[in-house]
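Morning!

As promised:
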Amino acid sequence: MLKALENKILKEGIVLNEEVLKVGSFLNQQLDPSFIMEMGDEIARIYNDEKITKILTIETSGIPIAFAAGTKLNCPIVFAKKTASSNVSGNVYKSSVYSFTHNKTYEIIVPCEYINKNDRVLIIDDFLANGKALLGLIEIVKQADAHLVGCTCAIEKGFQKGGDSLREQGFRIESLAIIDEMSPAGITFRCN
Amino acid sequence: MLKALENKILKEGIVLNEEVLKVGSFLNQQLDPSFIMEMGDEIARIYNDEKITKILTIETSGIPIAFAAGTKLNCPIVFAKKTASSNVSGNVYKSSVYSFTHNKTYEIIVPCEYINKNDRVLIIDDFLANGKALLGLIEIVKQADAHLVGCTCAIEKGFQKGGDSLREQGFRIESLAIIDEMSPAGITFRCN
């Protein structure tokens, strides 16, 4: 756990209701670069011995954290796009993700040339709630026949069980902060 | 101009036709963090004396470059979102951008709390072609009544005239590489 992130959430996060935490001031719409680099440092510390060759994330809010970790782990970042762009051509890995936030299923794609079976992949995202986005990214790593080292999210909503379910399936899930309970009255973080 | 960027474009860029340059290997889908940090260094060098208080960019591909520049200029980055998300509430600045790539007009929004009249804003994006995205971002800076210091794009398609038109209107536009001509046979960069 990254104590500085818990403090930042307590200071700047806005709990809109028991499911939605707004962290637009430093993570989702405004970015605090020195703080996000601190998250990158922590991710690099966790996976330092894992010889990560590629970080996989998903647009949009996962990108800055993945980028910060990539500067520290010294490896390229690949981000899955949520819809096919006219500039994407050739063979792609593809999977589907259901978004509770937007109440729709979207396709995510990564061109095959950017991940291959020799890669040791770390998946990074901003939020982990029900785990659907991570499952979509894990599916892409499987399609690439690459080795999945683990997944790190900045903020895990522990009460939504996506993270715990993935841990039970044997995946290494390291979140920088895990919220076990939240309401406009307060936030309870999971202890180490 | 950043010679290293011109070299990277020559080495890894793929000219699909006379209008479309694919730089997915280091800028648009896979990110080379140390190279993007080099772009951030160059942007910080250009605007070093301008007391930038905020960098404004637009999702998705502008974010890593803006982030790299923000770590060097030591200021927050705000990114305009392309559609209203259910997590965005309250007052927003809003403008419209026509995308030739996707042949549609989309709305871009920035919550008012992230830019105000005391800000000295630097706009950053990945590509500058017809200038529509920059115009949308400039409109947001105007709505905030903030001071626009200038705009920097990584790659300007000089032959599409968006950058030159903005320069003629008095805006400071500093691109890291300007392509005056391109075809599958080769790329000609504008000289300093």
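Chain B touches chain A at residues 16, 20, 22, 24-25, 28-34, 36-37, 59-60, 63-64, 67-68, 70-71, 74-79, 81, 85-89, 101-102, 110-111, 113-114 (CB under 8 Å).

Hope this helps with the figure draft.
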